[in-house]
Predict the structure.
Amino acid sequence: MAADKPYADIPGTTIFDADQSRKGYWLNQFCMSLMKAENRARFKANERLYLDEWKMTEDQKQAVLARDLNRCIELGGNIYFLAKIGATDGKSFQQMAGSMTGMTEQEYRDMMIKGGRKIDGNRRIGEHGDAQRPRKA
Amino acid sequence: MARITASLYTSHIPAVGAAFDLGKTKEDYWKPVFAGYDFDKQWMKAHKPDVIVAVYNDHATAFSLAMIPTFAIMTGPEFNPADEGYGARPVPKVVGDPELASHIASEVIQQDFDLTMVNEIDVDHGLTVPLSCVFGEVKEWPCKVIPFAVNVVQHPVPSGARCLALGRAIGKAIESYPEDINVQVWGTGGMSHQLQGPRAGLINREWDNAFLDRLIDDPAGLSQMPNIEYVREAGSEGIELVMWLVARGAMADVVDHGPKPKVAHRFYHVPASNTAVGHLILENVG
């Protein structure tokens, strides 16, 4: 689908649109299942076994097992859904968000206390802010 | 007849709810956040509403990808705080107003806004954190609350212009309700924040404050701002701010060319967890 995506040029950001939603449908629905205590217990007891009950791709399962939230988002996950994994692990939203930035937990917390990440250089891909993905060779 | 006396705007950050529930409001980190709501306690003594229409978004709590209504009004009698994965917040259940909610739904749908009507739903931090901030620790919420959900999770989300027009339709609907009651409309979410990817932690203080200025003085102009600008300038989750335009649209100057509202309170603070906290109270005058 060649829909216009004016948000495609924002660095370090994935907009959860219909394409991402289709791609991540079962990944996100798996996350929703973790809102029930009994499912959290079953997931914790054997993560792989629990993931195999869902129509997720192998890549999605690996990303969940690795708790690689950036990869989960790339594969169609949405942060509000993925947050259920964090809740299952006892992580706060700040720990989850920080884990996607390449910073340590303390560095991220300090950045927020100092006023957060700056917008300058982080509006468009190709600028020189601190949220730009590594340039591909 | 029912009248809209004020609108209130506030962030609805989950960590603020957690700090509240865990008794951390006096800690150095949280003190300046909660101080921004001290004013509300006094103000509410003179301006207590009978009903609040609270515009918020569900955060993949009640609405999964199985169904995502763009606009949903809660017409049921009561709503429990949701378990979002950490256990339900220990706050009172939300008591709705099915009669007024049904009236609003009926009037607004006849103004061509295709609302979804919801009778059974658990409400998440998007709704309960603002109630805690404004009313503090209470045994029961002091008034009825009609939750009104806007999809800001899966794009495309409604435009600012659509949200302002919806607010105007809600305002007209409330004004035509025959009971003599005070109603407030609240807009929640924001301000600048991004919770995902390498750009997580984004804050745009200058943009946020310009947004507050324009929300007060030029809601029609502000409503023309395209969604891409919210996302680019205020972070991917900053798009929640379109919901503030629903509440703004219900004020007298937008609904029927009444006088500009009075700014009763304005507050801004960075950070609370990943987010810039914004809070505003506007009163209808005359």
